């Protein structure tokens, strides 16, 4: 019999540039925050932990990041002794992978309670832009960069652009710009449609107290903003962020013995799908499609059953493209979907009610778990001004790393309201 898995605790702190907070500070915040959400003072019942982070090696701490940052909590008796912690690093998908690990813990029957926690400090006043961009490129093939350079150069020429590397630019934004330009060339997608997606997300960010950017940005202003790489402007791109998020998962058997106040706020994990990337052509579907199909199959639902989704919009173009890959609209019609208003909070398929990465922020190791937090909050009916009416089923799409024009990995999670 397949075990039932539930999220009983979820937390996200405010995303911003936290110059005065350390990795240990952010870890403490997320851990105590998720305990408080369950209603616990200590995590005595936690049997396994998954710790998500990407940037800590640039600060000099590698290998045992989670153990190091959880140690003060262990010493204070807040985190149980001898609990194994698995460190996870999968570029921008790290938080989703941590959630996947905790879910598998419960599903396998190995334990009844598992923790997933993620955090990031991308804002480092001592680091140069060159050092920061170099860290991002660790999410690519550093052994044979000539392979992806050739892929990007050829694709750029196809759409009348030039791909070039430099100390003052990040490859990821340039690659997104090439993909967006190709989509515009092939399907007639417009820069305005991408701006519509960004404006929608910035509006949603004004309703989220944890968002890094909490101001409206009209469509015309987005189009006139400083160009990063056409068609992308600054307002279409996720900012550098610090922050943390966490989730506590448990088995159905364990949940039955918890107080009703916890049972009534539990959210069921219907399914989680994962897929790996490859050097795909621009006409092939991305690994999001395959991760999504696996999650749908496991959950026993389809795109038509999803009431809201958090999709990985490191740039606003991804809001369009991921909607296509997840089946919310036909391939090539993501721009029309964004422009139609159907992805707004009141629309047919609300996307990124949190503000998405472009407004909420993108602290890499925490991003996937912040998506889970948004779904849990919505499905509990606790999202306040950004609440989606009658939300029953939500989807989180967390991608990371780059293999040519594909993500290196993608995790799609589907959650369901239980009460």
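^ Assign residues to that structure.
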């Amino acid at each position: 019999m397949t075990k039932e898995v539930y999220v009983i605790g979820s937390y996200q702190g405010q995303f911003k540039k936290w110059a005065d907070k350390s990795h240990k500070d952010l870890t403490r915040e997320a851990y105590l925050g998720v305990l408080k959400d369950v209603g616990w003072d200590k995590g005595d019942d936690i049997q396994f932990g998954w710790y998500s982070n990407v940037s800590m090696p640039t600060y000099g701490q590698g290998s045992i990041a989670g153990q190091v940052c959880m140690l003060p909590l262990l010493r204070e008796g807040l985190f149980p002794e001898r609990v194994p912690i698995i460190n996870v690093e999968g570029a921008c998908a790290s938080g989703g992978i941590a959630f996947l690990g905790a879910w598998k813990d419960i599903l396998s029957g190995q334990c009844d309670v598992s923790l997933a926690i993620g955090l990031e400090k991308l804002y480092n006043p001592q680091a140069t832009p060159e050092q920061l961009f170099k860290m991002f490129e660790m999410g690519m093939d550093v052994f044979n960069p000539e392979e992806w350079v050739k892929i990007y150069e050829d694709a750029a020429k196809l759409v009348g652009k030039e791909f070039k590397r430099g100390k003052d630019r990040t490859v990821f934004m340039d690659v997104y710009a090439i993909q967006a330009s190709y989509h515009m060339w092939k399907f007639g997608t417009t820069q305005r449609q991408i701006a519509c997606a960004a404006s929608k997300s910035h509006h949603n960010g004004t309703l989220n107290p944890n968002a890094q950017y909490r101001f409206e940005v009209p469509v015309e202003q987005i189009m006139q903003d400083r160009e990063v790489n056409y068609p992308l402007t600054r307002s279409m791109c996720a900012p550098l962020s610090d922050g943390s998020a966490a989730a506590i998962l448990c088995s159905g058997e364990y949940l039955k013995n918890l107080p009703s106040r916890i049972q009534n706020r539990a959210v069921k994990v219907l399914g989680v799908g994962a897929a790996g990337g490859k050097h795909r052509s621009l006409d092939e579907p991305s690994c999001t499609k395959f991760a999504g199909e696996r999650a749908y199959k496991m959950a026993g639902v389809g795109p038509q059953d999803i009431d809201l989704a958090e999709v990985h919009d490191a740039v606003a173009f991804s809001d369009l493209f991921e909607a296509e890959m997840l089946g919310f609209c036909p391939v090539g019609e993501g721009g029309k979907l964004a422009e139609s208003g159907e992805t707004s909070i009141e629309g047919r398929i609300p996307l990124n009610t949190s503000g998405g990465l472009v407004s909420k922020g993108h602290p890499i190791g925490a991003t996937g778990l912040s998506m889970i937090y948004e779904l849990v909050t919505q499905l509990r009916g606790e999202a306040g001004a950004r609440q989606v009416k009658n939300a029953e089923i939500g989807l989180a799409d967390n991608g990371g790393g780059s293999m040519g024009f594909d993500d290196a990995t993608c995790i799609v999670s589907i959650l369901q309201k239980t009460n």
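The longest helix spans residues 171-187.
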